[in-house]
């Protein structure tokens, strides 16, 4: 059976002399006609995974999403052949993922840093490997995924500091233009924050950056309203999005902080390396990614935007569909083009 989502919501935009609230009628939304059969199957599987109300129990949330990521990791390992080494870099625990066999000569002097997602609060272990394995295998490159400190036990800028420490350790072996950084969801946010942090500390910028399903700003725009109705048939949120990231990791951090919210600071963004933005069209991060792409382009920074129609947040953690395989190839090709270019 094809999944069909029922949508009923209200967009709150009204203000005196400005655009008014639009009443959205109930409707049945079929899957995108551009989806592969495998993607439709994935969406049906994902729809039955309904996280409970954790009521602030971080242990329960980590256990639930840990099982979810364990299942995705089994699928990754069934499709890709890689080796994983648990080690420490710069005093931070990491998992180093390499493709089976020798790394191609073209990538022997290159490395990628992965910053895993998980709402800043989970995603270590299997969640990180799910993001690192397909890129290591597809590109034929070493990927170092960072086990950064999590909220609520830790607050900003703990993750930026941890990723920067790993980056500094890798600079002893690799030229900065041969190091790429990428992350998904919260990891996409932290990846952008880390580049801003490196700039603030006077460290050399990396060769390229990938911000997937998250970037250097709070989630804003139409997609914040539309994502849950379009992917899970839930009611549209009534409260407008804020300019601050609603997460314990970012509590008390002013939006004027250029390393925490780099998208709001042109002088910081102008120092960014080439950037790839990637998400599904039904992802709550899609709008802010399009905005970042426009801002970077206006600043003269090489920027690429890839939106996959009909798919939701972090869709590429499901490897058994052509869209995910295409995403891995796009990510690999982007870093292959841009790593090695001097600033």
Overview of this protein structure:
With 343 residues, the chain is of the alpha/beta class. It has one domain: Rossmann fold (3-Layer(aba) Sandwich), CATH 3.40.50.1820. The chain has nine helices and ten strands. It has helices at 37-47, 58-79, 126-139, 158-170, 186-200, 222-232, 266-269, 286-298, 322-338, and strands at 5-11, 22-29, 82-89, 92-99, 111-115, 143-146, 179-184, 208-212, 275-280, 303-308. The strands form two sheets. The chain has an eight-stranded mixed sheet, with helices on both faces. Strands 1-2 form a two-stranded antiparallel sheet. Strand 9 (275-280), helix 8 and strand 10 (303-308) form a beta-alpha-beta unit. It is globular, with a radius of gyration of 19 Å. The N and C termini lie far apart (51 Å).
Spell out the key features of this protein:
eight-stranded mixed beta sheet; 35% helix; 343 residues; Rossmann fold; alpha/beta
Number of strands: 10
CATH class: Alpha Beta
Basic shape = globular
CATH-level-4 superfamily name: Alpha/Beta hydrolase fold, catalytic domain
Can you describe this structure in just a few lines?
The protein is α/β, with parallel strands linked by helices. The protein is built from nine helices and ten strands.
Question: What is the topological layout?
Answer:
Blueprint: E1 5-11, E2 22-29, H1 37-47, H2 58-79, E3 82-89, E4 92-99, E5 111-115, H3 126-139, E6 143-146, H4 158-170, E7 179-184, H5 186-200, E8 208-212, H6 222-232, H7 266-269, E9 275-280, H8 286-298, E10 303-308, H9 322-338
Parallel strand pairs: 5-6, 5-7, 7-8, 8-9, 9-10
Antiparallel strand pairs: 1-2, 3-4, 4-6
Helix pairs in contact: 2-3, 3-9, 4-5
């Amino acid at each position: 059976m094809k999944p069909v989502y029922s949508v009923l919501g209200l967009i709150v935009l009204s203000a005196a002399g400005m655009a008014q609230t639009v009443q959205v009628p109930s409707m049945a939304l079929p899957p995108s006609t551009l989806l592969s059969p495998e993607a439709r199957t994935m969406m049906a599987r994902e729809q039955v995974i309904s996280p409970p109300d954790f009521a602030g129990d971080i242990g329960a949330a980590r256990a639930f999403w840990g099982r979810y990521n364990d299942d995705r990791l089994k699928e990754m390992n069934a499709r890709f052949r890689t080796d994983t080494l648990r080690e420490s870099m710069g005093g931070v625990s990491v998992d180093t993922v390499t493709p089976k066999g020798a790394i191609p000569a073209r990538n022997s002097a290159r490395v990628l840093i992965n910053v895993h997602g998980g709402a800043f609060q989970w995603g270590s272990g299997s969640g990180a490997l799910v993001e690192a394995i397909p890129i290591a295998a597809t590109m034929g490159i070493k990927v170092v995924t960072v086990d950064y400190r999590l909220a609520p036990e830790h607050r900003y800028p703990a993750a930026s500091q941890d990723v920067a420490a790993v980056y500094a350790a890798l600079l002893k072996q690799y030229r900065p233009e041969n190091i790429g950084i990428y992350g998904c969801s919260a990891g996409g946010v932290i990846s952008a924050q880390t580049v801003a942090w490196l700039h603030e500390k006077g460290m050399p910028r990396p060769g390229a950056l990938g911000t997937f399903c998250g970037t250097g700003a709070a989630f804003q725009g139409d997609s914040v309203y539309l994502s849950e109705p379009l992917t899970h048939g839930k009611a549209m949120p009534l409260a407008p999005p804020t300019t601050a990231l609603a997460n314990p990791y970012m509590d008390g951090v002013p939006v004027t902080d250029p390393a925490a919210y780099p998208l709001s600071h042109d002088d910081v963004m102008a120092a960014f390396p080439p950037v790839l933005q990637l998400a599904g069209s039904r992802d709550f991060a899609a709008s802010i990614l399009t905005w970042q792409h426009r801002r970077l382009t206006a600043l003269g920074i090489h920027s690429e935007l890839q939106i996959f129609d009909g798919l939701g947040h972090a869709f590429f953690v499901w490897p058994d569909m052509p869209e995910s395989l295409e995403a891995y190839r796009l990510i690999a090709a982007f870093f292959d083009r841009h790593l090695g270019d001097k600033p």
